[in-house]
Amino acid sequence: MTHALYRADAYRSQAPATVAAITERGGICLDASLFYPTSGGQTGDGGRLSWDGGAAEIVLTVKDGEDTVLVPAEGSTLPQVGTKITQTLDWARRYRCMRLHTGLHLLSVVIPLPVTGGHITQEKGRLDFDMPDAPGDKQDIEDQLNALVEADAPVAEEWITDAELDADPGLVKTLSVQPPRGTGRVRLVRIGGEQQIDLQPCGGTHVRSTAEVGRLRLGKIEKKGRRNRRVSVTLEDPDRPHE
Q: What pTM does this model have?
């Protein structure tokens, strides 16, 4: 079982670790990983591993049961099990995903409809909604979205038990992706302090304040079936650094 360092601190971009296993397909498992694995609609991290006498570029991170598997670039030299390594995230890629993921939580507030799907990459994020009719004013949605960004509301996590979530099923906005369970407790992401903006289960990585998201641009609103519509957002300034 991989210890998820990204969960304790999503802003940490470098850390030591030990190679715990090499999979049959050449994936690298560490005892503790900064790399977020593809899950919940968020694309997994990339970056670099380095060790005495070698290095490998990581192009993607995925889950395999309780393990996090780092996928090296094709042709990479692999470290041996037990090797002490330094893991370094592609921070620019991670930070864009953090900003977009938080932005999608805000989008689910501006469009208060059931979410039927979603996806986040460093280029853009999108949510699919149970939305039979197209919204009348796309610019108004974008303006409301950016007003929430500019509110500079805090983003924090808290935990509840599985039983508490079962007693309050309205917390779950996504119809297609269920909150990660198995440990007896579920992570919630709260946006806003005393004046709550959003609260929902989520295992992804987020920024600490909505202001860090930066201005968002609303993309196409595409029809994806009789009732589903896809709403995409991009970052107006994707290379904005974390201060």
A: 0.93
